[in-house]
Amino acid sequence: MLPVGIRIEKRTEVPSWVRISVPLGSLGVAFLALTGIIASLGLSPGQAYAIMIGGSLKPPGLNFMAIKFIPLLLCALGLVLAFRANVMNIGAEGQLLMGAMAATGLALYVMPGAPSFLLVPCMFLVGFLAGAAWAFLPGLLKAKLNVNEVVSTLMMNYIAIYIVDYLVYGPWRGPQNRPPTREIPPQAQLPVFPGTSIHYPTLLLALISAFLVYVLMMRTKLGYEIRVVGSNPEAARYAGISTAKVMVITMMLSGGFAGLAGVGEVAGNLHRLHEAKATSAGLGYTAIIVAWLSRLSPLGTILSALFMGFMLTCTLFSLRFLGPEITYGLTNVFNGLILVCMITGEVFLRYRIRFVWGRGRT
Question: Which pLDDT does position 362 carry in this prediction?
């Protein structure tokens, strides 16, 4: 007997196999869609995937993956905090840029002659504060006036882009009278593993931060308040928790982590402040996918950042060898596919679909 209808029911609990299978299924659907796109370009999906995996696992590919992993992890950790508080911070891109700008300004114009042991910590400190300050206004608007934080943080991204571009095309432009800025002093540049571009101080900072965020979320009063506000704001108010305070603090912490990522890009990778699109390279937006892939787990972001670093390496570093049909836009397409599939998968985690057979029997 054929089904005569579909019933959507809210789940009272989510079985373990569903928690595992839904994210994996979402990724599978995204890969199937990517396969179709590659085939539509007249290319062999098998050859494309072979190049993706082979090129990404060679030393240059691993180096590229590692330097993308670091900012992705830092930005994603901040976003996990915000999302767990049910504050949709879409502004990591701008917050990263503010951290990069602040660190560059400090190294070039405020403390250019300071020794490394003093200058580098100060760069990370001002970068964190700049990112936090950039997130403060959207957090305050959300907490006090209930202004939609998706819109406000997204608009702040564009303001940050124009500020950075103004500086590198204007008062901070380089010796050739055009972007980027001049190189930051040698003592402001982070050391790297020999033969690579991997700035290990920021890598270590990112990994330690993952464990610190886990401890914050699971072992502190603020972490408890974040979880309560995110899951049930009314219950939080009844329990005497200030939702406004939690939202503002969480947004500032979120922006601060993105600011640290910006410092790492300038001090460890670029050694200059480039125009905005070259400095951030969309990492703040990609980190949104990293946070959701981890299911908002601070420790899970380590694995999801590795995965997205691998995918960026595949599409930005490896697939370009296939031909001119492969462009940077394919990366954005695939990132969008993953995000759409992951969000769609959330429906199956919250609800189950049942077929109605015959005359209403299930």
Answer: 46
